[in-house]
Amino acid sequence: MHIRTLDTAELASAVAAKILLSVFDKKPAANLGVATGSTPEHLYAELRTAHARGDFSLANSKAFALDEYVGIAEDHYERYRNVLRRELVGEDKTGLTDENLYTPNGLMSDSHAAAAAHDQAIRDAGGVDIQILGIGSNGHIGFNEPGGSLVSRTHVEPLSPQTVRDNARFFEGDLSKVPTTCITQGLGTIMEARVLLLLAFGEKKADAVAQLAEGPISAKWPATIVQMHPEVYVLTDAAAGSKLELTAMYQERWKLQFGE
Ligand code: PGA
Question: Nearest 5°: phi and psi at 116?
Answer without folding.
Answer: -65, -35
